[in-house]
Amino acid sequence: MEDIGGRLREIRTKLGLSQRELADRAGLTNGMISLIETNKASPTVASLIKVLNAIPMSVVDFFQTDEADAKKVFFSVDEQTDIGSNNVKLMLVGGKNAGGQIEVIHETYPPGTDTGREMMSHEGEEGGFVVRGEIEVTIGRETRVLKAGEAYFFQTETPHRFRNIGDEVCEIVSGNIHVEN
């Protein structure tokens, strides 16, 4: 989806929220919401999650625009949704499972990139495997550099951040489960 701003504006107006109300709920500035909605700024992964938590809406629901997307079982490369920012590429596929939403993400972090300066948090669980390279993962107060073959799993309510401090591209395959309330 190239028009993240348009999609956000559409959802916000359907819910009857002003930009200021959404900004207050998400802990962002009104100006940042305006820049995102006009596609003059790309939100970091952390900022997008804050905005979606304020609505509330899962990342999968945000990027699935019709019922056909929700029932899709196979995805070619060009059908996967890129939800990345800051040169981080996050290719998302997902849909509903029995208890909520599941997202499967192929993450690509060039050297020096991260998910944003701010730690992110949301309801659910996440686990992943480092396929190539290395990544610094901070979960709460713990930080560790994971290398190819290593993995992680945590409750996503705990603030977290991913950062490539290495000299080569890092690839991760992860899964996120968002529990619906």
Low-confidence parts lasting 5 or more residues at pLDDT below 50? none
The count of β-strands is 9
Amino- and carboxy-terminal Cα gap: 27 Å
The 3D shape can be described as globular
What report would you give on this structure?
With about 180 residues, the protein is α+β, with helices and mostly antiparallel strands. The chain contains 6 helices and 9 strands, in the order ααααααβββββββββ. The protein has helices spanning about 5-15, 20-25, 30-35, 45-55, 60-65, 65-70; strands spanning about 80, 90-95, 100-110, 125-130, 135-140, 140-145, 150-155, 160-165, 170-180. Strands 1-2-3-9-4-7 form a 6-stranded antiparallel beta sheet. Strands 6-5-8 form a 3-stranded antiparallel beta sheet, with no helix packed on it. Strand 1 and strand 2 (about 90-95) form a beta hairpin. Helix 2 (about 20-25) crosses helix 3 and helix 2 (about 20-25) crosses helix 4. The protein is globular. The mean pLDDT is about 85.
